Amino acid sequence: MSDRPDVPRSHGRLAIRPSLQPRELGGPPTLKGAWQARVVTLFPEAFPGTLGLSLTGKALDMGLWALETIDLRSFGEGKHRNVDDNPAGGGAGMVLRADIVARALDAAAVGTPPERPRWPVVYLSPRGRPFSQAMARDWAQAEGLTLLCGRFEGVDQRVLDAYAVEEVSLGDFVLTGGEIAAQALIDATVRLIPRVLGNHVSTEEESFSEGLLEFPQYTRPTVWQDRAIPEILLSGHHANISRWRRAEAERLTKERRPDLWRAYLAAQGRDPDEDREL
After folding, report:
1. Could you give phi then psi for residue 89, rounded to 5 degrees?
2. Could you tell me the residue range of the domain that residue 118 belongs to?
3. How do residues 33-90 score in pLDDT, each as one tens digit?
4. Looking at the DSSP assignment, which residues form a beta bridge with residue 9?
5. Same domain, 166 and 76
6. Cys bridge to 84: 3, 47, 94, 275, which one at CB 3.0-4.6 A?
7. Contact of 201 with 250, CB cutoff 8 Å
8. Which pTM was predicted?
9. Got the DSSP string for 31-65?
């Protein structure tokens, strides 16, 4: 990576130069009141990435949502724009400095509401709260979201505390940085914004939307390799189809995600311990 802050960085459709201000990625001007994602990262060239493809990319071009990057390196110190230092107390790796990250978060906060429910600020971290569909729904109803992508051994805890940054995890594994996780979280959120998917009803039938995994899906051909679509799905009886799908969703959740199944029963006021198979 070049140490010069004036070197252009490619973002697919747009050439971006690092700046102390967020840079918007995408096509035409964003529609008034559109949801925004701001990403603090050492690798702004990683965006929009997959977010620029398919329906999310089309919605980005239409201005239904906006994507901006804040290059953390721009706030570094010295000739080499250093952003990290040795961990206090010793140990391997490097830690992103609190003062450097604070400058980037200040830039990302320009023009945003201070209330966290209206504009969450999130650090992608393996030790964070597990990301969920419910969190995506909450974020989609906010005005926007700032994501801090970590690197190395992480971020100085003081800046996370001072800026009330919420730590969120994509799962029980470790990545080399937060950029991939940030794209996943943004994608899960953006698709819940009205008009992005076109058919908003489809999001109501997906896995996790009602605490259950999604039922199996089928399409043509009716018979493939001697495997037929369940007859009930071809019956045209919508009430029976709905009952079958609910039963299948419950079966799959019970088999594959006992944790979700117990939470689902508890939410319905049913005692999870009554299910002896679990």
Report:
1. 90, 0
2. 9-190
3. 999 999 999 999 999 999 999 999 999 999 999 999 999 999 999 999 999 999 999 9
4. 16
5. yes
6. 94
7. no
8. 0.82
9. PTT-EEEEEEES-GGG-SGGGGSHHHHHHHHTTSE
- The enclosing H or E element of 157 equals helix 157-162
Binding residues for S-adenosyl-L-methionine, as ranges, are: 150, 170-175
* Residues in contact with 8: Cβ distance below 8 Å, sequence separation at least 6, in sequence order: 15, 16, 17
Do both 25 and 93 map to the same domain?
yes
- Supply the CATH number for residue 267's domain: 1.10.1270.20
Task: Give the pLDDT confidence of 111-137 residue by residue, as tens digits.
Answer: 999 999 999 999 999 999 999 999 999
CATH code of the domain in which 22 resides:
3.40.1280.10
Q: Are residues 226 and 162 in the same domain?
A: no
Report the binding-site residues. 150, 170-175
Task: For residue 195, give the 3-state DSSP assignment.
Answer: coil
Position 277 scores a pLDDT of 53
Helix H or strand E segment including 182? helix 179-190
**Do 74 and 134 have their domain in common?**
yes
